[in-house]
Amino acid sequence: MMRAVLFDLDGVLIETEWETFVFYQQYLKVHYGIDLPNSAFQFKAGRKSADFWRDVLTPDQRKAVDTEKLTEFKREQFNVHPDTYVQKVSGGKELIEALRAHGWKTGLTTQNEERMMQTVLAWLDISLLFDVKLSLKDIEKKKPDPQIYLKAAGILGVNLSQCIVIEDSEDGVNSAKAAGMYCLAIRHSYTPASHLHEADTEVKALQEISPEFIEKIIRQ
């Protein structure tokens, strides 16, 4: 029977939450003289940009700063220069290779734009290690809707119950569970305790996961 492990990208194979916050922090200081304290990061992790801006900027600051353009500028910089702005999660490539060696199909299911996905995968040297790669252009409904996971399983020809999803966000976990899949969640230090409660299993880091670990937890 075919089985698959489906990976989210941000927060699983790369880190962008803190890096995005620092980018905004530095840009606002240089261009607008706005000091964004490190404590404001609590409003960034795992949240939509519009909600973040609403919570960290005053009404007058939101009038002065075109947050939509700034968000797009950040996205462009991260697309073009992942080596400058994005952090690799150690052990990602090795885990994917090990899973494939143990007979697992592998897939990438990200809501990033296609260009960033391709740029980052090339930078990580893992583009050829996935049997399916889905990005924002491949879906009409974002997570927590299960569409991206249902589509990945369909392309792979793998039964939903034989898919393991590795996620790190509330929407991602809920998307995987809505698709009827087993969800293994990575809990970061900044992740609110309530966000991952629907996950089947939690770990603190990607490095805890191995083919043997996955085999063990799905037998429990």
UniProtKB/TrEMBL annotation:
GO terms for molecular function: catalytic activity; metal ion binding. The keyword Metal-binding applies. Its cofactor is Mg(2+). It holds the Pfam family HAD_2. The keyword Metal-binding applies. Belongs to the HAD-like hydrolase superfamily. CbbY/CbbZ/Gph/YieH family. PANTHER family: 6-PHOSPHOGLUCONATE PHOSPHATASE, SLL1138 PROTEIN. NCBIfam families: HAD-SF-IA-v3. This is HAD family phosphatase.
